[in-house]
Amino acid sequence: MIKKPLAIVTMVYNEPQHLTVWKRHYGSQVGEQACYVLDHGSTDGSTENLGDINRVRIPRSPQDDERRARAIGQFCASLLEWYDSVIYVDVDELLVADPERFPSLISFAQSSFLPAVTATGFDVIHRLGTEMALDYSQLISLQRRHIRFSSAMCKTVLIRQPVTWAPGFHCCTEILPDPCPNLFLFHLRYADLDSGLQRLTRTRVQPWCSDTVGQHQRLADTDWSDMLSSMSGLSVTEGELNESDTRFCAYRRSVQNSVSERVNERYRLDIHINGDELYHLPERFIGRL
């Protein structure tokens, strides 16, 4: 049976800004008809006009990351009946295959026959005091030029077989994570101070399945602002983000080393390895996110 090459999936609840970026980015990569938005009861109208993107409505319920990972895993597995590969990303995560080697995510997916691929992850950082508020209707890379390595964003994102994701989608049971040097995940949570605080206002008050989960989504404004300010003030380094870049290789190696110590654990990599400097986004990525 002939299958389509690649589908992209996300799940949202009232994410007007990030969904605008997600739609533009992935629609241009695979075509809107291969994009799937699981709408977890949005009430702000942001999922009403998605063009040819497939919208799947599910009932609103308290945030439960265990349930979410289970449901999304089953949904993505079902899409593998019609697609060779499926990508799941959160709505604030943009995947880019290295532009020096691949013109699109489709060409990257067709080049790999691994059962699953883990991206190398970076947070996009708002440099406070020097960069204006983010305009989500415009390309992110034309407004933000600094990124920070984050092992938490080294997620297993592309699958060619059904997998069992851990909550947060950092890893899965079936395959040991190994960050690919040619697939990059750019996380937008820290890309804008004001919109980040606005999102916190929503996530703090939304229902959760337990008082103990989702604490990073319920921080006080001052704590979140201080965290972003600290990241924004890191020194800046230049690097090409390829296998000749010693810092880049060292970050990937640190994740690989952490995996060897966690083979039998649910979270199979250390999600607390963070860069102690900011990378200046290499020119080849400008215009790609």
UniProtKB/TrEMBL annotation:
Which InterPro entries is this protein grouped with? Nucleotide-diphossugar_trans
Phylogenetic classification of the source organism: Bacteria, Pseudomonadati, Pseudomonadota, Alphaproteobacteria, Acetobacterales
| Protein name, per record | Glycosyl transferase family 2
